[in-house]
């Protein structure tokens, strides 16, 4: 079964094989969200799983949220937790086939690391295509050695810089200081900005 298929991920949710699920939003992302003052910005959360960050943002007053996951199960879980979350903003779809945007901000959390590494260049191009000029891609990447064993698949700051710099300005790429204990020392917080001339 292909790692990036709906069946693969739906089965993991049905079987409870969701070791990546923290049961709440990542502290680095809530801290970043708390600095955002414009509650009307268009935010995409791709491969969001149970989308705890979307719940956090929604409860904080952000309205233009779009949540995508290839599996329907985690989106249903978000809807059960937050019944008032608009159904039309929950998209069960393959991220690479999604036609939407542009977005002012895309929040990344455990989606990139779940993809087969062969798709990473395509991920970068798709993110650039979905963002508005001067839009930002922000979130967390894992920083442990990339192997064929996964998901999750790791990587390094140097690899990420080389991968994203042809399309984005690297504003921040640093060790996360507020990771949950099991991930401490293994996460990089980043903010990449799409230059206006890129589009």
TrEMBL record:
PROSITE patterns: SAM_MT_TPMT (PS51585). GO terms for molecular function: S-adenosylmethionine-dependent methyltransferase activity. It holds the Pfam family TPMT. GO terms for biological process: methylation. Keywords: Methyltransferase, Phosphoprotein, S-adenosyl-L-methionine, Transferase. This is Thiopurine S-methyltransferase. It comes from Robiginitalea myxolifaciens.
